[in-house]
Amino acid sequence: MPLVRVSVANLAWYVRMKENNVRYPFAILNPDKLAKGERRYMALGGGAMLNEAGKKMLEEVVGASGFEFDTGIGFYDARFRICERDLESAFKTFSSVDTRGATIYEQDPTLDIMAELSGKEFPGYPTIMSAEETELVRLDFVKVVRQKLPAAGADTSARGVAADVPTHRLFRIFELVMPLALYQGRMMSSPVVKILSNQELATTDGGSKAGVTRDGLIIQNNLFV
Questions:
Q1: In DSSP terms, which residues pair with 176 in a beta bridge?
Q2: What is the mean pLDDT of the chain?
Q3: Residue 38 phi, psi (nearest 5)
Q4: Could you tell me if residue 225 is inside a domain?
Q5: Is residue 38 in a domain?
Q6: Helix or strand (DSSP H, E) at 76
Q7: In 3-state terms, the chain is what percent helix, strand and coil (to 5)?
């Protein structure tokens, strides 16, 4: 039975106003690409962080192996390899979430998103907002979505391209809920944030390929409607 790679991530690509509940899709510049002089947009957030119970469960129930350890945070990411026949079982485990978008098998799914909101380093640009300003932001769970399998050579993820097996991705999507003044003063005015339209999100075809903004910049395939 062939192996597949599973990647579970917690991402934010919506921002909603507290005052009127108006919601907009958004993306941020990829800081690694920016450091190389390339402007490319991606979702805010990253891989789900497994706790010990989660890693053990995956090893015992679906025979998971090849876990990827994040030295920066000291946890294993929910990125691993399993037999293809166990894919649906693994996805079901991470699709059954509580009202916060969490399962009992991982660390708080909001930690990475909120830390990146004020902690991403963009060469030549300020962070999106200060740590104090993030205290005015609430993170609400929206939905669980499965990314379409990228076409051959179309994956915009460096990890996906480097892998020698197909990568199947499950995303838990969140929205940043904030006061209108904070949205206008920080998100809209940030040079590293792009407010998108659903039409722009649709250009990634469910995450099967890179998309494009109205002004011709690449949208990574971890953003879609």
A1: 15, 139
A2: 91
A3: -110, 135
A4: no
A5: yes
A6: strand 75-77
A7: 25, 30, 40
Q: Which residues contact 7 (CB under 8 A, 6 or more apart)?
A: 47, 77, 78, 79, 159, 160, 167, 168, 169, 170
- Dihedrals phi, psi of 120, to nearest 5 degrees: -65, 135
Structurally, the chain folds into a number of domains equal to 1
Which residue range forms the structural domain that includes residue 198? 3-219
Q: What is the amino acid identity at position 141?
A: F
Tally Cβ neighbours within 10 Å of residue 52. 10
* Domain presence at residue 37: yes
Q: Which residue type does 133 have?
A: E
Measured CA to CA, the distance from residue 114 to residue 187 in angstroms comes to 14
The tens digit of pLDDT for each residue in 78-97 reads 999 999 999 999 999 899 88
Number of other CB atoms surrounding residue 189 within 10 Å: 9
What is the distance between the alpha carbons of residues 22 and 164, in angstroms, rounded to a whole number? 42
pLDDT in tens, the chain (225 residues): 799 999 999 999 999 999 999 999 999 999 999 999 999 999 999 999 999 999 999 999 999 999 999 887 788 999 999 999 999 999 998 998 887 888 889 988 888 899 999 998 899 999 999 999 999 999 999 999 999 988 755 665 655 444 578 999 999 999 999 999 999 999 999 999 999 999 999 999 999 999 999 999 999 999 999
Query: Cα separation of 167 and 211, whole Å?
Result: 19
Integer CA distances (angstroms), 1 to 9, 84, 85, 154, in order: 25, 7, 7, 25
Residue 202 is assigned to a structural domain of this protein: yes
